[in-house]
Design brief:
Elements lengths: L3 E3 L12 E3 L14 E13 L5 E13 L14 H24 L6 H26 L13 E8 L6 E8 L2 H10 L1 H6 L2 E3 L1
Parallel strand pairs: 6-7
Antiparallel strand pairs: 1-2, 3-4, 5-6
Helix pairs in contact: 1-2
This protein binds zinc ion.
Length: 196
């Protein structure tokens, strides 16, 4: 059985959107039993670091096939480099608060205490990704990722109209990607959908 969906963004020369054919197996772990279609949004965020951090988003509504165990990953956006950088900076700022009294236990107030406070904060900041990605956001039960298994990693638009010329999708499950490529030859040949 095949499933078709149509998304909201317009593809140049294709009024009504784009009909992708998604294989009906879990796009995260590859399971084929008890598959349900989960409403999800693929999001492509582009950051422009100047004059202030500015993000523009392209959202692609999609229904992703999932087994019961992977349902929660279908809408969990994978962190981008920029969001990680911002989060790391925030963690560093928060870590300063406990670091100041901790440093005070070892040195007298003064430049040495400020220096030690910074080092403790940096150490605490270095720990959080290990905890977060090593323990909490770890793929489980044969999952290929703890985050969204299909990602929108590129969007090329027409300069004047803003119409979408093509989208680039990335898959964490290699077998699923191969299956997707097999089922969408026309879109891939036309270059409207690209696969990473
Ligand atoms: Zn699954």
């Amino acid at each position: 059985m095949h499933f078709h969906f149509t998304h909201e963004i317009s593809i140049e020369g294709r009024p009504g959107g784009l009909a992708l054919e998604l294989p009906e197996s879990c796009c995260n772990c590859g399971a084929t039993e008890s598959i349900s279609w989960v409403d999800a949004r693929l999001v492509r965020t582009t950051f422009v670091p100047f004059p202030v951090v500015f993000g523009s988003e392209v959202t692609l509504p999609i229904r992703l096939p999932s087994c019961p165990r992977c349902t929660r990953t279908m809408n969990r956006l994978a962190p981008t480099l920029m969001s990680l950088a911002l989060l790391t900076f925030l963690v560093f700022l928060v870590a300063l608060f406990p670091s100041w009294p901790i440093a005070g236990m070892f040195v007298e107030t003064g430049p040495k205490r400020i220096e030690l406070t910074l080092w403790i904060s940096i150490s605490l900041t270095a720990l959080w990704p290990l905890l977060w990605y090593g323990a909490i956001r770890r793929p489980r039960n044969g999952q290929t990722t703890a985050f969204q298994p299909i990602r929108l990693v590129g969007v090329r638009r027409r300069w004047m109209s803003g119409d979408i010329r093509h989208v680039i999708l990335e898959f964490t499950n290699d077998a699923y990607r191969a299956n997707f490529v097999e089922r969408n030859p026309a879109l891939l040949r036309a270059g409207v959908v690209r696969v990473k």
